[in-house]
Amino acid sequence: MTVEAHKETLGFQAEVKQMLHLMIHSLYSNKEIFLRELISNASDAADKLRFEALSDDALVEGDSEFSIRVEFDKKARTVSIIDNGIGMSRQEVIEHVGTIAKSGTAQFLSSLSGDQAKDAHLIGQFGVGFYSAFIVADNVTLTTRRAGLGAEHGVRWVSSGDGEYTLETVEKSARGTEVVLHLREDEDEFLEGYRLRNIISKYSDHITIPIQMFTEPLPAEGDDELEAEPELEAVNRASALWVRSKKDISDEEYNEFYKHVAHDFEDPMLHTHNRVEGNYEYTSLLYIPARAPFDLWDRERRHGIKLYVRRVFIMDDAEQLMPNYLRFVRGVIDSSDLPLNVSREILQRNKAIDSIRAGSVKKVLSMLEGMAKNDPEKYATFWKEFGRVMKEGLGEDFGNKEKLAKLLRFSSTHTDSEEQAASLADYADRMQQGQANIYYVTADSFAAAKNSPHLEIFRKKGIEVLLLSDRVDEWLLSALTEFDGTPLKSVTQGELDLGELEDKDEKEKQEQAGKAFDDVVEKVKTSLGEAVSEVRVTHRLTSSPACLVMEEGDMSANLERILKSAGQDIASKKPVFEINSEHPLVIKLKDESDTARFDDLTQVLFDQALLAEGGQLEDPASFVKRLNELLLSMSS
Length: 636
Ligand code: ADP
Ligand code: MG
Prior knowledge:
Blueprint: E1 7-11, H1 14-26, H2 33-55, E2 68-73, E3 78-83, H3 90-97, H4 105-110, H5 116-123, H6 133-136, E4 137-145, E5 154-159, E6 164-170, E7 176-183, H7 193-204, E8 211-214, E9 232-234, H8 251-262, E10 270-276, E11 282-288, E12 305-309, E13 312-315, E14 330-335, H9 344-348, H10 351-374, H11 376-390, H12 393-396, H13 401-407, E15 411-412, H14 424-430, E16 438-442, H15 446-450, H16 456-461, E17 465-468, H17 472-479, E18 482-483, E19 486-490, H18 504-516, H19 518-528, E20 534-537, E21 546-549, H20 557-565, E22 576-579, H21 584-591, H22 595-612, H23 620-635
Parallel strand pairs: 2-8, 12-14, 16-17, 16-19, 20-22
Antiparallel strand pairs: 1-6, 2-3, 3-7, 4-5, 4-7, 5-6, 8-9, 10-11, 11-14, 12-13, 15-17, 18-19, 21-22
Helix pairs in contact: 1-5, 2-7, 10-11, 10-13, 22-23
This protein binds adenosine-5'-diphosphate (ADP) and magnesium ion.
Magnesium ion (MG) binds at residues 37, 40-41, 129, 263.
């Protein structure tokens, strides 16, 4: 391999520029975290090398003592972070510190508000830790060499964070990375040893390899000579946090460790820390982030669970360790039963992994159960961030279906608020005497669900209905058909039978009224022809003239629309058209003798019913024309 000894100047990817700007401004009040971020990267680099060296021990070049060194130079006004981790090749430098390798970043950045306080929370979601150096530095030099490459393959990256960086090939005998920050004018506080030590203890104590600094011996009295030579000493505790006993770990320590493993800038919402002994031995430390990452719906997203085997880092984002619906969980799992050379392929069919995964899912679910019970407000925040993902679990994780059903929260007519706050157990408690079903309506927006004409009779009788408008709800309902023995039932499907909730007199009256409309029903049917499967007098409506109903067991109209918009070719089922015999427009229909006007009014009622439930008209122009003609004929 020939060495390209050239020096070149490259531009940052546009997103990086935007990000740098945002970062410097939003993190200004908490500058010291730059050190945490650079140490976090140095530690990751050591982990990666330690793992690669398992299959190729030449990579450690005879030095398997990993460490991170922090130095400062008052005269030169620099702080340096030096590691002997994996290092980077020239190409890797370009990829990792010249771009943000996450799809959707540009789009997300442009959607950010100018509200910087809010943006500060978002900034951590990008894995942009390295750039935090520019909060305190006006110039950053990163010199690195990939472990295993010759000394002549060193690379030097220099930037003042203003849109460009230079790359140069240099000699570097020691493997790993050295980052030198030239501090901005007012940042002298970081040129003090005690300040740096403090920051390291505060944020980086959990780092598993030693973070070293030189001692600062005082000159002996009346003498220019130093009392002793400066020596390297470790500033951190340098032991794996998850191995320690729970009672010895403070919340701050748990939080800082989270920021390191999750690459997040914010404290987590909750954690669960467990040592499991039995058939398989492992320790898990799992966290729920405070906020859903912007790429929660992106299949390429990274940073999930880190897998360790007997404290040796094996891999990031071990997707086998958490089901998809818990993809927001972060943390580490350290197993004693896996071989050190475990690969992603092996993980896919490994008994220990299956058992660890099942155990970890249980821990997460019981942590959530506990939060729902003990801190409903916090649980509400959790649900707001992650509820839509949790709903996927019903279809995905059959074994935990009952647990998951208890964790669900929905909007409902109980409050008519968009916040999803009602659990199925709450609903069950509020059910009326004689109520046999849990009722729900699905629609493609909350407003459409809340205002659905199908709810009229339920509102009149004070029967609660769940208002479902997340896309995932349709899938959820195909997996969840009952709760604690009570069936879930759509209010838009099948003939409405409120059973014991209906009183006899009422029923008789309705039947009588129905008979009086037999003729109208027949005529409407003829008029609408192929568009409907049946026409009948409704029991659901109190104020709307008509509505559409799907037959029991047919796909809901909402699901049909979702599938069609996803490009699926599905045959439409014809709906049942129900008319309200007490509505003036329907009574008008009964008295209408002119066939053309009868047909127009019928068609308008049908189209309205379709619109009211969020459907689209096949011929909107004709609808408008008909409606206008009717309006005119009314006023005349
Ligand atoms: P993150 O740590 O979340 O990936 P950063 O911005 O902190 O994001 O770092 C970007 C990438 O740059 C890292 O993922 C890593 O590939 C590379 N990198 C940064 N610092 C080092 C280092 N000291 N040694 C090796 N690689 C590094
Ligand atoms: Mg980082």
